[in-house]
Amino acid sequence: MGPVTTDAAPSTPRAPEPPRSPAGALLLDAARRNMRQYGMLVALGLIVVLFQIWTDGVLLKPNNVTNLVLQNSYILVLAIGMVIVIIAGHIDLSVGSLAAFVSAACAVMMVEHHVPWVLALVVALAIGAVAGAWQGFWIAYVGIPSFIVTLAGMLLFRGGTQILLGSRSLGPFPEGFQKISTGYLPEVGPDTNYHNLTVLLGLGLIAVVLIQEVRSRRREQAYELDVLPRGLFLTKCVAMVAAVLAFTLTLASYRGVPVVLLLLAALLIGLGFVMRNAVVGRHVYALGGNQAAAKLSGVKDKRVTFLVFVNMGVLAALAGVVFAARLNAGTPNAGVNFELEAIAAAFIGGASMSGGVGTVLGAIIGGLVLGVLNNGMSLVGVGTDYQQVIKGFVLLAAVGFDVWNKRKVGS
Q1: Distance (Å, rounded) from C-alpha 371 to C-alpha 395?
Q2: At residue 395, does pLDDT exceed 90?
């Protein structure tokens, strides 16, 4: 008896997927790779537009934009250091108390002992470095979890602040020290209704940005990587130039570039370069992504962790100096909740709870989201109680989006 054969049911042909243009594919891939950061940029733009309309144009007035930078400068400094700590897979709860301790130390040195402000600044940064090294030693070489070590540090530095100041406030400070937070670049050249030096800096920044974009595009083409089509690339460049020019003219129409903004720009460029291009920066990402694999690959995990906390200590001290210079006094209640604001800025800007993910620019964007929310809600008369509720929902939404995005990519 011959083999029995059965006719298989004919398969239903699948409809072909509509072809995507190369430009659309590249945009979609870029959006997937940078969803958190692009999402926060879009969110920041929407928040700015919302409050610009809600405040009848007050939000983007030159004096308010300048105040926005000054009011959030110390949180942005802390956020830059905090995102590096989080990328490495750790957390630091002590930065607000350390900033308060450093500001108190500066007050005691300059007001009671008449130490020159430049020397007081150097000593303040040294105190931050020593405090960061102290905590980094226990975390990296002893193996105590960073949560416990920095929680102890928070109590230690807050107590030290109370010991130095008690219940009093010390001030005022020398004028040179105050200008760290409240100073502006000097006016030069003829009267043009704009701050000439600010305009020149803005034009220089535009040139640097364009040169960097062109070089990056050529480098990617040399390695035969996917790049945006010429039309989209030009559109991107025009958008970046327009944003920089608008911000420059806004500052130039008031008092020019604040000194603290130059400080933030230096930190953004310097630490951003280190995290993207330097060996130690790549080791921080590797350590936070998979510590065991990083150690097997030759990463000196203890040394990298130690350096991360030294860097955080120096930046916390710098934030304390900036805050004290803006307040023109050392106060026992300085730095309260600064660590929570910095952590929130890092997570809103794209950092991941599991480590290994995040950027310095993302932390700045997250800090600006919180800053614009604070400033905008204050302008429209929203109470501080409701402001806390809204910021809590924003943080929850940002971290929830990160979890959802990871699950989607994993599936």
Answers
A1: 13
A2: no
Tokens 């107590």 found at? 159
Question: What tokens does 142 get?
Answer: 């002893």
Q: Which two tokens stand for residue 228?
A: 């945006």
Give strand pairing partners of 258: 184
Local structure of 356: helix, strand or coil: coil
Separation CA 76–CA 36 (nearest Å): 18
**Lowest mean pLDDT, pick from 28-32, 115-119, 329-333, 407-411:** 28-32
DSSP code of residue 170? B
- Quickly count helices (H) and strands (E) in the chain: 16, 0
Please give the Cα distance from 126 to 318 (Å, whole number).
10
Residues 6+ apart with CB under 8 A from 163: none
Q: Classify residue 151 as exposed, middle or buried by CB count within 10 Å of its CB (0-12, 13-18, 19+).
A: middle
Residues contacting residue 96 through CB under 8 Å, at least 6 positions apart = 78, 154, 335, 336, 337, 338, 339, 340, 342
- What does the pLDDT read at residue 36? 57
Q: What is the pLDDT of residues 224-252, one digit of tens each?
A: 877 778 888 898 899 889 989 999 999 99
Sign of the C-alpha dihedral, residues 35, 38, 40, 43? negative
β-sheet bridge partners, residue 170:
330
**Alpha carbons 199 and 253: distance in angstroms, whole number:** 10
Cα-based torsion angle of the residue sequence 55, 57, 61, 65 in order, rounded to the nearest 10 degrees? 50
Inform me whether the pLDDT recorded for 410 exceeds 80: no
pTM of this structure:
0.88
DSSP string, 238-271: HHHHHHHHHHHHHHHTTT--BHHHHHHHHHHHHH
Task: Return d(Cα 106, Cα 395) in angstroms, integer.
Answer: 33
Q: What is the CA radius of gyration of the chain?
A: 25
- Is the CB of residue 99 less than 8 Å from the CB of residue 74? yes
| 287 contacts 136 by C-beta, under 8 angstroms | no
- SS3 at position 184: strand
